[in-house]
């Protein structure tokens, strides 16, 4: 709820130079993402051993305490420390994915990831809207106080309502023949590393427009603020509408078939971004962003689903933590690339690099699929 207002709040707290404000705002935004990226796999690994319910309680309790901390802080340094701790100790999404995966069968995990992605998209749109109303009516501190109360309520509900899932210390048994095939394929791309790299690319492409889209809407579309907000929301609408469809479509398909179809989705995203680069009418942008959301719904949840399905039950938290760390890394890279692009390209042309990222992702997925087919043929010949 507070995300859009950090720079303004820090500016109002104390008189800082423009450079100091830029650094403080960057730390408030990027600091928690960096800490989550570094710590999520660790919390996931602990959850694999101790059970993911208590990791949910830990994440929500950390959010509760740090939101209270921020609500009653009047010092910039103290707020930034709270934000860093929030990123390090929270990591709720990865933990929720691991907890949900431990309750259901493997063939249902695609649907789970799609529903969690829908919930995240709805929250990312509705949170700033509600936060904007509270900020205008009550002030910034009240946003964090209300958020702390919400997180505290969720902590109690999780502690007393959710069923516990025991951790496991079982090791993963890897088939010796398959292990031999992988070791003999010196040039093959590890499936795990390939999925993580694809997540970085997809998330960076998704986040790049966050840097420049408001300027693009103002300078190219000459759109009022409400229309800019509608363009932002259009992406979430497409994602929420399409996520159940993709989850159902991919539920019983083989890994190779899923990779082939999401490769096609990446090509579709590249075409849509090219259309956005050539569009100068607001309705064209709204339609293209809805379509972009439709195909985005087939990407990130599917990658999480593949990571979950192909990992042992004893490693769900660790692997999904790696996936969420890759997503955070992609988000940071997207913001950095978008900011750098603004310095060298006209704002109307900044959609082309995003399309190129989707083309690169499509080739990565094709390479992964072909390597998988080659390994399968080798295993049958041995």
UniProtKB/TrEMBL annotation:
Residue ranges of every copy of the Major facilitator superfamily (MFS) profile domain listed in the record: 1-373
Sequence intervals crossing the membrane: 20-43, 55-72, 78-100, 112-136, 142-165, 186-205, 225-246, 290-307, 350-367
Organism expressing this protein natively: Undibacterium jejuense
Name of this protein: MFS transporter
Keyword terms, alphabetized: Cell membrane, Membrane, Transmembrane, Transmembrane helix, Transport
Keyword Transmembrane helix: yes
GO MF, one example: transmembrane transporter activity
InterPro entries linked: MFS (IPR011701), MFS_dom (IPR020846), MFS_trans_sf (IPR036259)
